[in-house]
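Input record, target 12 of the design panel.
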């Protein structure tokens, strides 16, 4: 794995090209906005990467400012322009018709860049001109023009946007099991902070999973270990450690204390020294983003506990 070096944040002078620019971040919302002041994009499930192109000098920065150009050299090289530009976008792997973070992690772990794609969605700097004060819609127009003028092709793709009803795009994203959408104010500048001018609306999956164990804390539980019935087998699905209050945590602990088991009930045993194992009599209602390539829940959150025999 290449050594990560953090880039110095630079404040631009009148026409001096800045170094790494801290990214603008979206505010999480429950419902997408609508109206002519908003455009809407698919939310990609990948790594946020800022490309800094200064002639033959190519740099690629993560959202925290780490220089990862070695990992993304194919993408940096494919943005083939002999100009100055700072582009904001997302590196993804498309697997089974949608962006898949687990597949991306696996490829990066192997050092494999063949499937990496870069969705460019914002242009912050171009040929001595700081575009951050320009309206969102103008920055996107200039970015599309730049990509088309230089006939850039895959792995570089322009992130198309949709106008009008954000909920309609969100409904489509839900049907296709995408991560969600990002809605953006057409007239807003680019600011290096979390803003209301960008709003993210996430698609989540839901399921019921048998609780196979837990980690104690002084008043309740610190985490739950989850399983899944596959035929006659009970397989491990990972753990959840968020989504409950102190009161709910105590209630969960009280329920699980009634079904404590001297040994785990998973078909294939796992090593968890801090675990208290239980009979899989209780089911946790879980919201989660995805299932990793290792078969574990990703970005899971607890929503409730029930007793029964329902399978996930």
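The sequence produced for target 12 reads:
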């Amino acid at each position: 794995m290449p050594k990560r070096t953090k880039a110095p944040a630079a404040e631009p002078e009148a026409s001096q090209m800045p170094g790494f620019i801290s990214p603008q971040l979206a505010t999480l919302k429950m419902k997408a906005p609508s109206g002519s002041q908003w455009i809407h994009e698919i939310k990609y499930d990948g790594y946020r990467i800022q490309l800094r192109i200064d002639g033959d000098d190519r740099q690629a920065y993560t959202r925290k400012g780490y220089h990862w150009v070695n990992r993304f050299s194919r993408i940096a090289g494919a943005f083939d322009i002999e100009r100055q530009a700072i582009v904001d976008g997302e590196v993804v792997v498309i697997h089974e018709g949608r962006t898949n973070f687990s597949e991306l992690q696996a490829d990066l772990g192997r050092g494999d860049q063949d499937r990496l794609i870069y969705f460019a969605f914002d242009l912050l700097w171009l040929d001595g001109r700081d575009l951050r004060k320009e309206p969102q819609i103008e920055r996107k127009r200039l970015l599309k023009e730049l990509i088309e003028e230089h006939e850039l092709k895959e792995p570089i793709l322009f992130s198309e946007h949709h106008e009008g009803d954000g909920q309609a795009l969100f409904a489509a994203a839900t049907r296709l099991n995408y991560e969600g959408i990002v809605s953006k104010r057409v007239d807003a500048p680019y600011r290096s902070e979390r803003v209301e001018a960008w709003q993210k609306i996430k698609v989540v999956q839901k399921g019921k999973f048998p609780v196979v164990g837990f980690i104690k804390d002084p008043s309740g539980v610190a985490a739950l270990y989850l399983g899944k019935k596959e035929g006659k087998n009970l397989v491990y699905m990972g753990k959840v450690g968020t989504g409950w209050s102190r009161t709910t945590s105590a209630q969960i602990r009280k329920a699980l204390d009634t079904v404590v088991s001297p040994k785990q009930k998973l078909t294939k045993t796992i090593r968890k020294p801090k675990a208290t194992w239980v009979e899989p009599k209780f089911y946790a209602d879980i919201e989660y983003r995805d299932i990793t390539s290792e078969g574990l829940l990703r970005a899971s959150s607890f929503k409730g506990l029930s007793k029964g025999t329902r399978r996930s």
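The CA atoms of residues 108 and 308 lie 41 Å apart.
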